[in-house]
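[Discussion] Sanity-checking designs against the backbone

I'm trying to build intuition for which residues belong where. Below is a structure token string of 391 positions. I'd appreciate it if someone posts a full sequence so I can compare it with mine line by line.
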């Protein structure tokens, strides 16, 4: 463990393992039971070796203490590649390579394999000078990069509030992207939700759901705590197949899912599809008080419209029944638009150590944002909702 005194008020420490920090102290910083920053989630990633030296995600978490109390923290990783981030900088790495300059390793302030917006600089909810704590964490990360001659620091998917604060930092580049989000408009049930859509989109959704019902596939909704190790043994190959058919290895291993179903199963929601009693597909999601987060999907074989049912329609029904306001189904995928998910902006912040590359990447980010803005405007023109029912 590394530590230093940043100011007379804060002591800054750096940790190669999350279990060097007390779980209760860390979780006390996590807002609104946000699942992916819970100590249990990050611990499971490390203990089951989903992250670590072998996978190119080496923990370097930064903490801020005041008078011995943990008042701030940043989940931070030393990366030797760009996989599992969902903010794509391969072209930047290629440019570095063409000039004979190493881009890797880099520092990434993110949740591994999880492109879900949220706080990236944690602080006590009632902390005085919260912005000062968050600034100290960012400064500590950049100082670490400078001391170790690391090319860059990247903050991926910060909350809107933190993105605005990062944008005020002159040395950071702010990059824009997008995702699709479902938001409740006080619809009483799924039929009311469909009623707000245009006729063509409503018919399409009903047809897709009817196909599943007529195929004999039945869906059950379970909490993570209800998933036994034997059931995980049936579900995990479905998740893994999604990666293997694309020629890549799964990010998570069976031990990870078994561990978090024990330690935070109440924040997991699993939709399981059965055909004649046999499990044929699943969707693994997480939830907090306001939001359902669709994360992983897998199937044994192709069933027409089953992906839409498991990954979208079941989640919307669950949110309506449980009074959740938002459903984040994951990044990318324009096909989400016609099923009730509207485009919203995502962000990232980047510190680039080399001044020449900082200027070039800054130009790229500026031009890219203009393209993203135009594309978002085009997507919004194709809203699936009636003009009088658009959220």
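Best answer:
Here's mine. Compare freely.
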């Amino acid at each position: 463990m590394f530590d230093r005194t940043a100011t007379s008020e804060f002591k800054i420490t750096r940790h190669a393992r999350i279990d060097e920090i007390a779980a209760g102290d860390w979780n006390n910083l996590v807002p609104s039971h946000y699942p992916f920053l819970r100590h249990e989630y990050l611990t499971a990633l490390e203990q089951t070796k989903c992250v670590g030296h072998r996978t190119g995600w080496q923990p370097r978490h930064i903490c801020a203490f005041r008078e011995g109390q943990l008042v701030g923290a940043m989940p931070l990783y030393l990366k030797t590649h760009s996989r599992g981030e969902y903010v794509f900088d391969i072209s930047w790495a290629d440019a570095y390579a063409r000039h004979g300059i190493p881009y890797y390793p880099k520092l990434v302030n993110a949740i591994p394999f999880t492109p879900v917006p949220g706080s990236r600089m944690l602080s006590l909810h009632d902390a005085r000078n919260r912005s000062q704590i968050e600034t100290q964490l960012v400064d500590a990360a950049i100082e670490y990069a400078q001391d170790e001659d690391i090319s860059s620091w990247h903050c991926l998917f910060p909350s809107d509030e933190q993105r605005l604060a990062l944008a005020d930092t002159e040395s950071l580049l702010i990059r824009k992207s997008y995702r699709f989000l479902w938001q409740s408009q006080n619809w009483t049930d799924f039929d009311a939700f469909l009623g707000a859509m245009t006729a063509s989109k409503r018919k399409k959704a009903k047809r897709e759901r009817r196909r599943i019902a007529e195929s004999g596939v039945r869906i059950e909704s379970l909490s993570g705590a209800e998933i036994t190790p034997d059931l995980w043994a049936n579900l995990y190959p479905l998740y893994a197949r999604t990666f293997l058919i694309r020629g890549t290895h799964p990010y998570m291993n069976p031990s990870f899912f078994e561990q978090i179903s024990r330690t935070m199963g109440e924040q997991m929601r699993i939709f399981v599809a059965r055909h004649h009693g046999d499990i044929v597909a699943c969707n693994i999601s997480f939830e907090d008080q306001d939001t359902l987060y669709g994360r992983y999907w897998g199937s044994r074989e192709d069933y027409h419209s089953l992906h839409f049912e498991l990954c979208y329609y079941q989640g919307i029904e669950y949110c309506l029944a449980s009074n959740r306001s938002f459903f984040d189904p994951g990044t990318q995928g324009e096909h989400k638009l016609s099923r009730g998910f509207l485009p919203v902006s995502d962000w990232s912040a980047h510190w680039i150590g080399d001044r020449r590359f900082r200027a070039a990447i800054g130009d790229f980010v500026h031009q890219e944002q203009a393209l993203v803005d135009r594309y978002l405007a085009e997507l919004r023109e194709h809203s699936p909702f009636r003009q009088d029912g658009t959220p």
